[in-house]
Amino acid sequence: NPDAYLPDLAMALNNLSNRLGELGQQEEGLAAAQEATDHYRALTATNPDAYLPDLAMALNNLSNRLGELGQQEEGLAVAQEATDHYRALTATNPDAYLPDLAGALNNLSVNLGELGQHKKGLAVAQEATDHYRALTATNPDAYLPDLAMALNNLAGILGELGQHKKGLAVAQEATDHYRTLTEANPDLFEAALQQSLEVAAWLEILEYPSSGLSGNIARSE
């Protein structure tokens, strides 16, 4: 009974690909993600209103699996397709899909950066950050972690483009948010805080090469 159960199979495959990825079984995870995406393409072709959100989600997941296996160009194409779908969905229902669009944009910026396309990645990362700012303004409990993540990513891209001063300011903002988050939940956010400190320290050295690290930025071991 494919009409009844193909959507459930596609969802199960997408979930399976995530679990495989978490266990480091990237090739198996990629195969499951590709199969899930293929099923959602078929479902979307006949009923886009019902299944386009699922296809976009599956594509975003597939791009992650491709990236984990070093297939950056294929991952970039898939990430761009996911972002395009989320743009269309957000245009008609921003309350439901703006968080997904922001996440897809952040993922796309990472893909662009991995391929050395930092200028394109900067515009995409800035857009993701802007969306997360808007979401955080109305629901900080839900979206502050995403904003901090997007800011950290944006800071790294600015550094790659030689905009060290601007990147340092963004990295310090990310670090401030992660400090707040870590105070409330150290087990969940300590690693992210350390990563943001490393980015800030790297940018500070680039901006002030003769002075070394200031007392405000700590380098993690």
The largest sheet, given as strand count, sense and whether it forms a barrel, is: none
Helix content bin: over 70%
H/E series, N to C? HHHHHHHHH
Terminus-to-terminus distance = 56 Å
- Tell me the radius of gyration: 19 Å
Mean pLDDT metric: 94
- Poorly predicted sequence stretches spanning 5 or more consecutive residues: 213-221
Short description:
By secondary structure, the protein is mostly helical. It has helices at residues 2-22, 26-46, 48-68, 72-92, 94-114, 118-138, 140-160, 164-184, 186-207.
Description:
The protein is mostly helical. The chain has helices at 2-22, 26-46, 48-68, 72-92, 94-114, 118-138, 140-160, 164-184, 186-207. Helix 1 runs antiparallel to helix 2 and helix 4 (72-92) runs antiparallel to helix 5 (94-114). The model is unreliable at 213-221 (pLDDT under 50).
Q: Topology, pairings included?
A:
Layout lengths: L1 H21 L3 H21 L1 H21 L3 H21 L1 H21 L3 H21 L1 H21 L3 H21 L1 H22 L14
Helix pairs in contact: 1-2, 1-3, 2-3, 3-4, 3-5, 4-5, 5-6, 5-7, 6-7, 7-8, 7-9, 8-9
Descriptive tags:
221 residues, mainly alpha, 9 helices, 86% helix, globular
